[in-house]
Amino acid sequence: MKRKLNDDTTMDDFMRATPAAIRVVLKHRMLCVGCPIASFHTVADAAREHDLDEDQLLSDLQAAIDDG
């Protein structure tokens, strides 16, 4: 069964569990890769900090999960 994002998932946990997510993070020009705050920020926090559309970011991250 494929993994699904949840509200408690931190950016760091997500990038470690789904390496394809790193491409999504870089595509959105986010600085989460290697950031010490990534272990505390959820996807929603990161979207807010980077002034991104949260729904679009979630959609792109979910696509990274689905693509494996």
UniProtKB/TrEMBL annotation:
<protein>
    <recommendedName>
        <fullName>DUF1858 domain-containing protein</fullName>
    </recommendedName>
</protein>
<feature type="domain" description="DUF1858">
    <location>
        <begin position="6"/>
        <end position="57"/>
    </location>
</feature>
<dbReference type="InterPro" id="IPR038062">
    <property type="entry name" value="ScdA-like_N_sf"/>
</dbReference>
<dbReference type="Pfam" id="PF08984">
    <property type="entry name" value="DUF1858"/>
</dbReference>
<dbReference type="InterPro" id="IPR015077">
    <property type="entry name" value="DUF1858"/>
</dbReference>
<dbReference type="InterPro" id="IPR023883">
    <property type="entry name" value="CHP03980_redox-disulphide"/>
</dbReference>
